[in-house]
Amino acid sequence: MSYQWIVLEKEESIATIILNRPDRMNSLIPPMRVEIRHAIEDIAADDTIRVLILTGTERAFCAGADVTTVAEQTELAEDEPGRERLLQPIATGRIVFALQKLNKPTIAAINGVAAGSGTALALACDIIVASDQARFRIAFTRMGLSPGDGVSYFLPRAVGLHKALELVYTNEIVEAVEMERIGLVNKVVPHTELMKVAKEMAVKIAQMPPLTLALAKQVVYQSDAAADFESQMTSEMFRIKVLQETEDHKEAARSFIEKRQPVYRGR
Are 16 and 49 a contacting pair, CB within 8 Å? Predict the structure, then answer.
């Protein structure tokens, strides 16, 4: 599939989605959102891909929704029935759902400004690496809106309830150093090294068994909704039992005993 508003790159086991509307700071318009979702679906179906990196071009990661299209009531999504239409008109939430449902690790490489829905895209990724030129701004309240696209779920879990409310209420710009200090991102790196660091991290993750990564992602995210410690332990043991029957687990054990690098096949 060809894309107009994004770039999809695949290099060995790593896929990179690059938001590519630099003249508008990679702000989201309806067909761009559709392209992002289609790219995620492509990655989900490609067994050779084990990690996804999401980033932007030039000076922005994503400045959120393009305000000139916020009033639009459709998103080229006539195929989406019922409750999915409740996510109109902005519908960035569908991308957030797709990132969360993707059974592969995701890394946001924040190369510049992340605002509004752009913060949602970053927070929906499993790991966030930021350039020292990155800036973060919730922005929803500035537009007369409460937080959307999953921000109200992810932000308190990243920085705590009180800090999250401060960022939401004040609409303050958070610079890169502060992003790292409050736990909003995993690490801040020099701008010129951002993609190098993100790809090195992706390569390291891709060396792990893919089924293990998928179930690890599930169980860690599920922990927030666990009723108690015992129920979370039950979820852990269920997944471990499933993984113990896989070829990759047996290969991991053999390679450890034989003192060699394992070869995982996702089975």
Answer: no
**Beta-strand runs (E) in 45-94:** 51-56, 60-62
Q: Which of 2, 35, 9 has the alpha carbon at shortest distance from 202?
A: 9
Q: Could you count the other beta carbons within 10 Å of the beta carbon of residue 241?
A: 9
Lookup result for tokens 């508008």: 24
pLDDT tens sequence across 227-241 = 788 888 888 888 888
Gyration radius (Cα) of the chain, Å: 19
Asked if pLDDT for residue 261 goes beyond 90, the answer is no
Strand order in the sheet with 187-189: 6-11, 14-19, 51-56, 106-110, 127-131, 187-189
pTM of the full predicted structure?
Answer: 0.88
Residues 6+ apart with CB under 8 A from 102: 40, 43, 44, 52
The helix (run of H) or strand (run of E) holding residue 174 is: strand 174-175
Dist CA 267 CA 265 (whole Å): 6
Residues with Cβ within 8 Å of 156's Cβ and at least 6 positions away in sequence, in order, are 164
Asked if residue 174 lies in contact with residue 128, where contact means CB atoms within 8 angstroms, the answer is: no
For residue 80, pLDDT beyond 60: no
pLDDT tens digits, 50-64: 999 999 999 999 998
**Three-state SS for 108?**
strand
Q: Please tell me the predicted confidence (pLDDT) of residue 69.
A: 60
What contacts 124, CB < 8 A, 6 or more positions away?
95, 96, 99, 100, 106, 150, 154
